[in-house]
Amino acid sequence: MLEFFSSFALAFHLMCMNIASAGPLVCVWLDWRSGGNEVAHRAAKFLAWKSLVLLIVGVLFGLIVAVFLWNDAYHDLMHAFMYKIKWGAWELLFSIVLMSLYAALVSRGAAPRLASKLGRASIAVLSGTNLLYHFPVLFIVISEVAGGYLDAPEKVDAAVFRSLMTESSVLARSVHFWVASFAVTGVSLIGYGKWLLRDEEQKETGSRLAIWGARIALVPTLLQILVGVWVLSVLPPLMQHRLMGSDLWAASAFGLSIIGALWLIHQLSAVAFGDTRPRTLKLAIHLMYAVVILMTYTSRLALARPLDAVPVATLETPDEC
Fold first, then answer.
1. 71 torsion bin: left (phi>0), alpha (psi -120 to 50), beta (else)
2. Interior angle at CA 140, CA 135 and CA 146, nearest 5
3. Residues 185, 201 contacting (CB under 8 angstroms)
4. Structural domains in the chain (count)
5. Which range among 144-148, 153-157, 216-220 has the greatest average pLDDT?
6. pTM to 2 decimals?
7. 135 pLDDT more than 50
């Protein structure tokens, strides 16, 4: 039961960080076309503030997840990664400042000049790519070290971390997060469109936003099929065996997540081609929640290993060679 609740908290944390990371990049597209399009400007403003708020909420839920996982072995592991964690905290603060500035600028209205558009776009791109580059890789590396799939060094500096982040499983899972971020962000626009549909006067606006969101989400959701095959092919053998049936719960959650993803593709396709009935939108949103939770639960079970059983091995450094 604790595994399920920690997975639920982790899934919510991941969805918050998905939108916080990809949201600013989608805002650039929306803001760019907002000069003569009130709907696009409204969507950009909504998504900019939502990205900022969910970045902060995501950090708080990340701390809650840490409480679920914390023990003496994790304390030692965090100490080993302290160099990267300190830098990560500064990078996080940097993104919060950038998104605050961008959201304030977007709230002032459409940019009147090309230079203003380029300046605002640069701020949003820097915020989003900063999060996408630093945080998925860091926490994927930590999770694989915690599971015993990567050697756990006594101290991780920049050179050691670069060697860890180039592992095939780390790269594949990082790309999986990046692609998922755009899918979840698209579904968040569907949710905004569904909320606007409650007002008779805003039905047209709500329908357009829902269709835009579905189209943004559909392409990365389709790409996740290819990315998922890549991830599965490069996972350590023990994780592969668990997903293929040696662990009944992991295999069941994995199978259900695949069924959910295929169903989600069907629903997103319907919305993308103009089916904006509230029931269709609601099902697409709930399916996205379900798939993320199931995938997170699957990952937690596949990675599971008593952390205090992980041997601590010192990686070679250039000075020792």
1. beta
2. 130
3. no
4. 1
5. 216-220
6. 0.87
7. yes
